[in-house]
Amino acid sequence: MNKITITTPDDWHIHVRSGQLLKTVISHTAKRFKRAIIMPNLNPPVTTVSQALQYRDEILHALPKTSDFNPLMTLYLTDTTSVKDIHEAAESEHVHGFKLYPSGATTNSQSGISQLEKTYPLLETMQKLAIPLLIHGEVTDSDIDIFDREKVFIERHLTTIIQKFPALRIVLEHITTKEAVHFIQTQPQHVAATITPQHLMFNRNAFLVGGIKPHHYCLPIIKREIHRQALIAAATSGNPKFFLGTDSAPHLKHHKESSCGCAGCFSAHAAIEFYAEIFERAGALSKLEGFASHYGADFYQLPRNTSTLSLVKENWDIPSAYPSDEHEIIPLNAGQHCTWKII
Ligand code: NCD
Ligand code: ZN
């Protein structure tokens, strides 16, 4: 197949930052996606509806004039989030979920939850008001190996949350293991997961063999090949519980290429193209539209997009860097070529 046309996709997990970085990255997403779930891990975090609306305005102002891109906002769940905050969020047409970061799990998660049990009254309210809970599913206990953090989170915490709140709508974000795939498959329909392009494209050898590749470092960390295979099978299965979430997470080059580099891969410049290549290689291009354009909207109870996006089989070169003021961001697969191109 040399051309595909799909319903315009949405990105159900992205970091677009603020200020100059936002201005640098947002057009890449707006060119490919109609909507995106905007992660709230700014510093300080987005914790209230009024902050989310202010952030949404900043995003809208950073967009190219002709863009009809719609940012879908989320709030950051903290130890001080109140039941009233949940009610306000549920009433806002622009807020679509709460993001739970275990404290210390990832970039800007220092305001995250210190003890999951403390959030139970909030989860109760979210369940009642049918507002989704988006989870960074990793434990941060120092005795747990970084490659096991997701698996242990599922065993120790997610199972309990689902038992206690059986109607709560949950997205386990950026899953990375066969255990997570299996877990999601065996849960009710309103428990779903997003999958990133980097976890579908790379295993930990690509990240660590022949020299460390800081631009492949993200959290949850990239795992063994057996896990990548399980993720590809899930994404291309046509099961609506698995949908697109790039987790595109831009950091300036010098913050990644450092003795203590930041976690996050920037993939917005070629996100849908990467997924097209992955699905094509798996012999499952016909399953791309469901994963990229239908299942996420269905989960969030939003209408599917009515416009379309076309891609052609044509090589193009990914730049070695994108400038951002006097700095630069290194895109995923910098300097290599993409085999699909958006029209
Ligand atoms: C994200 C970021 O940089 O904001 N980083 C990452 O490695 N994925 C945060 C996150 O989603 O964990
Ligand atoms: Zn993320």
Note down, in words, how this protein is organized.
The protein is an alpha/beta fold. The protein has a single domain (3-342), classed as Metal-dependent hydrolases (TIM Barrel). The protein contains 12 helices and 13 strands. Strands 2-3-4-5-6-7-8-9 form an 8-stranded parallel beta sheet. A 3-stranded antiparallel beta sheet has the order 1-10-13. Strand 3, helix 2 (49-62) and strand 4 form a beta-alpha-beta unit. Helix 3 (83-91) packs parallel to helix 4. The longest helix has 16 residues, at 149-164. The two termini are 15 Å apart. Residues 13, 15, 39, 247, 249 line the site of zinc ion. N-carbamoyl-L-aspartate is lined by residues 15, 41, 106-107, 136, 218-219, 247, 249, 263-264.
Please sum up the structure shown.
It is built from twelve helices and 13 strands.
